[in-house]
Amino acid sequence: MSAAKKSKGKAQQTKLFVLDTNVLMHDPTSLFRFEEHDIYLPMMTLEELDNNKKGMSEVARNARQASRFLDELVTVSHETAIEDGIPLATRNEHAATGHLFLQTQAINTELPLRLPVGKSDNQILGVVMYLQQVFPKREVILVSKDINMRIKARALGFAAEDYFNDKVLEDTDLLYTGMLELPADFWDKHGKGMESWQESGRAFYRVNGPLCNAMLVNQFVYQEGGEKPFYAIVKQQTAKQAVLEVLKDFSHHKNNVWGITARNREQNFALNLLMNPDIDFITLLGQAGTGKTLLTLAASLAQTLEHKIFSEIIMTRVTVPVGEDIGFLPGTEEEKMAPWMGALEDNLDVLNQNDQEAGEWGRAATRDLIRSRIKVKSLNFMRGRTFINKFLIIDEAQNLTPKQMKTLITRAGPGTKVVCLGNIAQIDTPYLTEGSSGLTYVVDRFKGWGHSGHITLQRGERSRLADYAAEVL
């Protein structure tokens, strides 16, 4: 490899990243995410890409896309010898200015501790060792999503890192909650020149002050204490001014939604979002038992059957089992999805029990009517569809990658509302973390948009047993 011919100054400044296969299979665009640094692909990485290209899974699709990117780079830069490095700037989407090096010769390095040579991971480690010997003054770093691979590399004295570029946030504690508590002196500092008015039965306040800069459109602001707590949503925001709209009180029985009332502050905020026709996209985060699915179903039934805003409810979720997979399931798409939709059935039972006056026959008729308006769909058949005037509920959304999330949300046609539910502490998909989940991604990207809203539900309302278990186990 004649990369050694490159100027020593540049070599010392830029790093050489050796990519493990799982990085490319996780994010094919990772080739263009290393800015001015160079990338080295061992032959074993290309072999493993080839072995994983078959099938319809997300991993197989990514392996094929990575191969297409590599083919494009090699084809476009036919004038450059591969040994000298292929300039990544030919595809200038992500401003990558480094070079791509492919292994063009056999590398025979004896790994310490006599690691088995046949194993692909060890062959990649052998390449890292060789590159360190060839470029003693250059920083050579192995990038892998495999924790054990990184442990092995560090045990052998090599630099190893996780692939962080897909992370939306380094720390999920910084994730937008959708709420802002107003300080005790808020009205003293922001009340000067305040305007207030009534419109469509709602009270509005226009406030001026330093805190307005920290607010986002459709963020909830609240102030507890006093005779009556103050709950409002930010409708407009500039650097020094904000318009606050006082919320509807869904904790009062007269404002119940399909028999459901809000049991705490966050549930009240969630129902204000779910029942607002101007909001097209909603994300609800929260641990088990906070009422995400129940509130969403109650709002969807009220708007579909009572107010006739939507024609039907579509519910989908990622089919990732908690334990061992039970194999193929018989029946139609709806019947195959039934075992995954236990949460839907449980919540429909709760919503059905609210109508005490209807009697057994009335409740059975209502249940049949509700089931006829709720469609359960598999994620696998979503591509290419367009939903018009539908209420789309994506359950367990924390298991979706950002790419899958984009595929789903872009299905929304005119008059469709999309609601994503999930708990980022319960991710079951391999290689997805709290920081790189599609749910974290959309919460961060959609905040402040005038037609989207987010709330993180805090308090469990399932039972005292469930609350205690969530706290101590």
Care to describe what's here?
With 473 residues, the protein is of the alpha/beta class. It folds into three domains: 2-161, Rossmann fold; 172-246, Ribosomal Protein L25, Chain P (Beta Barrel), CATH 2.40.240; 257-472, Rossmann fold, CATH 3.40.50. The protein has helices spanning 8-13, 21-26, 43-51, 58-76, 120-134, 147-155, 186-190, 265-274, 292-306, 333-337, 342-353, 359-373, 402-409, 438-446, 464-472; strands spanning 16-19, 38-41, 86-87, 99-102, 140-143, 159-161, 179-181, 195-199, 202-208, 220-223, 230-237, 241-246, 281-285, 312-317, 374-378, 390-395, 417-422, 452-456. A hairpin with a 2-residue loop joins strand 8 and strand 9. Helix 3 (43-51) packs antiparallel against helix 5, helix 9 crosses helix 11 (342-353) and helix 11 packs across helix 12 (359-373). The model is unreliable at 1-11 and 321-326 (pLDDT under 50). One of its GO terms (cellular component) is cytosol. This is PhoH-like ATPase. Keywords: ATP-binding, Nucleotide-binding.
Produce the secondary structure layout:
Blueprint: H1 8-13, E1 16-19, H2 21-26, E2 38-41, H3 43-51, H4 58-76, E3 86-87, E4 99-102, H5 120-134, E5 140-143, H6 147-155, E6 159-161, E7 179-181, H7 186-190, E8 195-199, E9 202-208, E10 220-223, E11 230-237, E12 241-246, H8 265-274, E13 281-285, H9 292-306, E14 312-317, H10 333-337, H11 342-353, H12 359-373, E15 374-378, E16 390-395, H13 402-409, E17 417-422, H14 438-446, E18 452-456, H15 464-472
Parallel strand pairs: 1-2, 1-5, 2-4, 5-6, 7-10, 13-17, 13-18, 14-15, 14-16, 16-17
Antiparallel strand pairs: 3-4, 8-9, 9-12, 10-11, 11-12
Helix pairs in contact: 3-5, 8-9, 9-11, 11-12, 13-14
